[in-house]
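fyi for ur records
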Amino acid sequence: MDKKAAKERIEHLKKTVNHHRYLYHVLDRQEISDAALDSLKKELFDLEQEFPEFITSDSPTQRIGGQPLKQFKKVRHEAQMLSFNDAFSEQDMRDWLKRVENYLGSKITQNPKPKTQNLFYCELKIDGLAIELVYENGILTQGSTRGDGIVGEDVTQNLKTIEAIPLKLKTKNLKTKKLVVRGEVFIKKKEFERINKEQIKKGEKVFANPRNLVAGSIRQLDPKITASRKLDSYIYDIATDLGIAVHEEKHNFLESFGFKINSHNKAVGSLEEVFKFRDYWEKHRDKLPYEIDGIVIIVNDNKIFEEAGVIGKAPRGAIAYKFSAKEATTIVEDIKIQVGRTGALTPVAILRPIELGGIRISHATLHNFGQIKRLELKIGDTVIISRAGDVIPQVSKVLKDLRNGKEKEFKIPANCPVDDSKVIKQGEIYRCSNKDCGARNRESLRHFVSRAAFDIRGLGGKIIDRFLDEGLISDAADIFTLEEGDIAGLERFGEKSSQNIISEIRSRKIINLARFIYGLGILHIGEETALLLAKAVSSIKYSAFVAASVGKQVLRPVQISEILKNFSLEKLQEIPDIGPKVAQSIYDWFHNKRSVEFLKKLEKVGIQIEIPKLKTSARGGSAFGGKTFVLTGSLESMSREQAKEKIRSLGGDISESVSKKTDYLVTGFEPGSKYEKANKLGVKVINEKELLELLG
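which gave:
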């Protein structure tokens, strides 16, 4: 076949394949068999491989485009991609309409319009991922995620794998060179089940819900993985101004361009019709091939919609009316008081852990003390927990009939649980009277998770602040009580990020004694002093405190307190480099009732402390006893922190600077100025290999 004939055949094949793809994936109709369509696609693919100069970006063969990416680039949206505020009841909807009308200064129902024009447009709210598509001269040139609404990620290659998204528009009469549309990517229930079955067969974790699967699939760096998930899409909005008068007309335009639109969407004339539409789909949503979690209601008149403007990150003229929250029952085992960054006190229900919406939950917000009173909630009550809008778990109802008489009344504390200062009331808010309390608590938490202490990676300052503001934690022990479901519903947290954080937290329950002491944040106790104190504890007779398992040398937090309580001020001052001021600080901390209670909490959540047993030399005594080491440059076989811990386990001391008291300078790659100083002072210099020999 010559080039001219090949080009003509390719164009015919592209047109035919696209026609049948549109029938099957958009209109749910089929004129030829799957095998026949596959045969046409194969012929097209073979011809394009033979004549690659005729491959175009709108060819059906380009739906799985190119090699895996190293990363996604950021793209700015043509206009901000907004999200919706939520309503959960008919009254919420009436309040929404009233707010819009108050803002406009007129009633929407009184605006002049044709009698045939409906007031609202209702769309099924699909449980998927919002996307933006850009077409230039009718060709798909860019597809992106919502991101923060202003900047998203370029996932064009992955979106091209979705058959419902046209690579080329059908219309030839589009008056604009550039068309921007928005919609939703989702996965059908059967596909979701199929993929989870495959995950189980492979011994891998199943996806909790379709939305998380879709989000993960769209952000795959290899488009072939995205293609294997068989995602689907509906387009519901046009961001380009085409002079369209009403929103429902946009859907007609989208259909004429070749996009797949949801045939269940409907224009209605009143809120009462909105309620009927919503109630119908709440009862019949199980019949749909995909998941929905509510409906979206939009003011149909585009001019009024634009005049209503934006409030926060949501359009004022639209709202998501959610279905009834997912619910489950459990027992409130306690009501804890969390202290936020500003010192405000927030009550949080500590739950007997439950699975809700596929995620494990152990905390539920109570919002404020007034909520406890309204619910008539007691500690020990059986309650209904709901995830309003699939977001934050909350106590929605108390099942009083299940009370057994052992429930306890909750009392608002007179003193702050963090620093024991008096609690004061300011309006409806209770807060600590010490204005520095919240800030100090935040800093102590940041110190606790820092690299030199518990080293909980990913739990940075901003996340600590968020957990405090949401009332999820009040002290460091609370961190270890968190479950995935407690944080997955927070904005900008998803299933994967919450899994990673919880996994990291759980991996840090066993900790070296020196790190543990440093993490307590005792006044005047830095890393070096914490090491000295740890050595003092390790050197005494503590066999009565050691865990039952032989050789593990593990202590519980309260046992550390019991050991150090036996240290008098004089004995503490006998420890090298610990003077009267530092000794007093240590003594006061371990004799403080609140400190002991905190250690008990750490013990309850499963914290264990490793006591390194000092290795001894053949002559007795620790192998490196009294020897001071300085490390410089990077090591190959281990990190410098690991090397330091091994040296300390043999009784050696670590210093950061070279002096006449230094016994060994350990040099790695690019040692720096410490090497020259060691030579001048006559300090013995050893390399990594020699260190390993000493370590044995």
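The first helix runs from residue 3 to 25. thats all i got for now
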